[in-house]
C-alpha cells in the first residue's frame, strides 16, 4: 500500500483527532522522512496554541498551552496564510525560544504550514529537519502532499 493509501485507511478508522494526527505523522515520516513533526491547534478565544500531536513526546509533550504571540511569524502564517520557513538554527532562534531543544534533536530548519477551514486558520503542521532542508521545492512538495491530509485531520472531533 502507498503511504497515501495507508493514511487514508487509517483516517477512515480514526475515531478522534488524536488518532488522525498519529496517521498524519506516519504519512509525513513515510513520504518525507522528516525528523520532527508536531501539530498545533489554535484557540483564538482563549489566546492559546496547543500541541495536539508530536513525533517526539519526551522533548515536545502533548500538553499545556502556549500564548499566541502576535508577531511577524503570526502575521505571515495566520494573517497571510503563508508557510513560515527557517533553514538555519540561528533563524529558528530568532522566532522560537526552544531553539536549543530543536538543535539537540539534530534539527536546524523548520516549515510551519497553516491549516485553514472555512477561511480560518485553525492550526499548523510543523516539520523540522537538518539545516537547509526546506528549499522552495521541498516546501511546495510538503504543501502539495500534506495540506489536504492535515486539514482532514483537523475536521475530526478532538
Automatic annotation (TrEMBL):
Protein's name in the database: GAF domain-containing protein
Location of the GAF domain: 19-139
Pfam families: GAF
Native source organism of the sequence: Pararhodobacter zhoushanensis
InterPro entries recorded: GAF, GAF-like_dom_sf
Amino acid at each position: 500500500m502507498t503511504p497515501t493509501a495507508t493514511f487514508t485507511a487509517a483516517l477512515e478508522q480514526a475515531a478522534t483527532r488524536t488518532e488522525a494526527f498519529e496517521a498524519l505523522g506516519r504519512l509525513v515520516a513515510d513520504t518525507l522522512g522528516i525528523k520532527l513533526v508536531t501539530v498545533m491547534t489554535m484557540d483564538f478565544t482563549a489566546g492559546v496554541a496547543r500541541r495536539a500531536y508530536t513525533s517526539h513526546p519526551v522533548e515536545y509533550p502533548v500538553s499545556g498551552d502556549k500564548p499566541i504571540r502576535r508577531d511577524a511569524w503570526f502575521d505571515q502564517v495566520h494573517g497571510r496564510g503563508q508557510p513560515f520557513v527557517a533553514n538555519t538554527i540561528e533563524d529558528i532562534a530568532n522566532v522560537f525560544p526552544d531553539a536549543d531543544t530543536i538543535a539537540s534533536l539534530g534539527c536546524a530548519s523548520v516549515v510551519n504550514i497553516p491549516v485553514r477551514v472555512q477561511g480560518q486558520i485553525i492550526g499548523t503542521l510543523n516539520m523540522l529537519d537538518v539545516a537547509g532542508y526546506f528549499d522552495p521545492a521541498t516546501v511546495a512538495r510538503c504543501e502539495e502532499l500534506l495540506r489536504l491530509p492535515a486539514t482532514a485531520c483537523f475536521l475530526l472531533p478532538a
